[in-house]
Amino acid sequence: IPPVPPPPNANTKNSWAMDNGQHILLGAYSQTFRLLDLLEIDIDKTLTKLPFALISADSGVAMHLENHSENNKKISARQAYKLKLQMLQNAIGINDVEKSLFQKYLQKIKTKSLLKKFKIFNFFLKNKYPTVYENLLPHFQNNENCNVLRYILFPLCLASMNTHPLDADSDVFDNVLANSFCNFSDKNSCDILIPKTGLSDLFAEPAHFWLEQNDAQIFTRCRIGNIAYEKNNGWFLSNADGTFPEYFDSVIIATSPQHCLDLLNNSEIAVNFDDQNLSSEAVGTLYFSFNRCLNFPDALIYLEQPFPSWLIHHGEANYSVVFSGSGAWQSAW
Question: What is the pTM of this model?
């Protein structure tokens, strides 16, 4: 997931970013496959890879990308891009005006994505409004209830960034859309990726094994008590047994956000952050199975009521419901 940009006043050399968590729904991130290939992970055994399809159970709105792998039919990435445009034209439950507005917006971010290659334009290409909600609304005639926003773009924002459109960064979401729907260099760029196995089997354990095979030093069962930073040396870690002998150029803190400041309590860096800077987004997943498969219209279904969520078929009789982003669902959890 693209991380939340660092705070405006953050030191660019030691900038901070908050990652909202591993949320596999779209194949828009080309590095995902590169990383899985590097770790020699069998994608066919660990992931169900499907052409993009979005169905809203509440509204009947639906978009389907033609399965370009059917009958071993091979097509170019550019042909796949044309299929994505055709998918929009054939969408169900969206009127022609909304389709036209959606296509114009995708064309805009496609152009912006191409211009970003020339870094001199980057400052001028940032969106006028910071959040996804504020940025998209004017493009769709300020109608927040139009079907494209309510049942496609806002749900995709939740799915890909695990953040509500009212809070999600508009430039980051534009990058997601550009890499998925506007990408004519990768025909798999908007595939849906559904894990067949737990995330430990999918990534963590193969990554651990790869690091060991490549002479990385891994400390397990080592509870970190404090993380500190020295201007001339870098980061060092300490625990109940003392301090690690070496300094580190950077650290990734993979823990609940409420524990982060405790780990940094003796660091001068910690004073630059408050609860707002280290805010996080919740995600909840319910797993369940039946004695037999249910009759599902597709592997991925969006539910707006009672809470925005995704109903996912993992194969056989195994299912899950994913609640993305902080919201009313937490009080009912």
Answer: 0.77
